[in-house]
């Protein structure tokens, strides 16, 4: 037979100003299974927590509901109080009657009715809870960072310098992100490249960092501590380990398209390097603009291959799917600038 205790917090005046807490406590006392229902000014205080511990021990409570603020603030506090009194901490539920009631309603009657319903929901939930015990499981001590801008670069370096391996995935041919396009940084007007490029080089040379550019995360499965990630590595049609970055291929290429790096103000070739300080310093063949077409068949132009003395061009490269197991994932995918022409109200 359930023996539930309900504890309603005033939160000073944050809740009590809008919610009739005395009426809510009286209403909760009549719910099936509730054997104890009180209201108190600050449930999170030491005296408030003592009320919970004493009621558990004196009335043999099998479940506890606290109607107060957000669980993000004090769920751990109240679970600990339950545990100290001998009640499994997972036989506890919290009803958020501050953010969901008193802070979003002006009508006292409406706020009180809603608070009562939330308390009712929590009571029914805690009746169905089962005692749980924490367990320890092995985790994968490797991290995945998605996004190779300055945030992803710094995150990867911080983790790698702590002794853990990192896989850094960037969808474009080079890391650097939006910061690589800036001349100065606010508010000190420091040279952005002076800050960024040493970190880019450090990422490429760090023994604990696996750098996967021109790649995208396709699928993530698993759970915190043990994720399995599928990564699509797009073909560059240029062998990274062979390319010297000399630029002869780009000089020979007959195709010119607007350059994304400078927002279309300049031009680049179908085989290109995003910017002079790119990492890795390897050319990429843009199959969407190459005369050979996306499938590289039939070959109607081989000027880049003919110009490459290192023989780094490989038209037969195919997309490759890699799998990595990681324990943590950091998403640092950056931002896109708002097209100014869409903001008509600003002229």
Q: What is the topological layout?
A:
Blueprint: E1 4-9, H1 21-28, E2 34-40, H2 46-59, E3 63-68, H3 71-84, E4 92-96, H4 98-102, H5 108-128, E5 143-146, H6 150-161, E6 166-169, E7 184-185, E8 190-191, H7 192-205, E9 209-212, E10 215-223, E11 226-233, H8 248-252, E12 256-258, E13 267-269, E14 271-272, E15 284-285, H9 303-307, E16 320-326, E17 328-331
Parallel strand pairs: 1-2, 1-3, 3-4, 5-6, 5-17, 6-9
Antiparallel strand pairs: 7-8, 10-11, 11-16, 12-13, 14-15
Describe the structure.
This protein has 347 residues and is of the alpha/beta class. It folds into 3 domains: 4-128, Rossmann fold (3-Layer(aba) Sandwich), CATH 3.40.50.960; 143-235 and 318-331, FAD/NAD(P)-binding domain (3-Layer(bba) Sandwich), CATH 3.50.50.60; 236-317, no CATH class. The protein contains 9 helices and 17 strands. It has helices at 21-28, 46-59, 71-84, 98-102, 108-128, 150-161, 192-205, 248-252, 303-307; strands spanning 4-9, 34-40, 63-68, 92-96, 143-146, 166-169, 184-185, 190-191, 209-212, 215-223, 226-233, 256-258, 267-269, 271-272, 284-285, 320-326, 328-331. The protein has a 4-stranded parallel beta sheet with strand order 2-1-3-4, sandwiched between helices. The protein has a 4-stranded parallel beta sheet with strand order 9-6-5-17, with helices on one face. Strands 10-11-16 form a 3-stranded antiparallel beta sheet, with no helix packed on it. β5 (143-146), α6 (150-161) and β6 form a beta-alpha-beta unit. It starts with a strand and ends in a 16-residue tail after the last strand. 35% of the residues are buried.
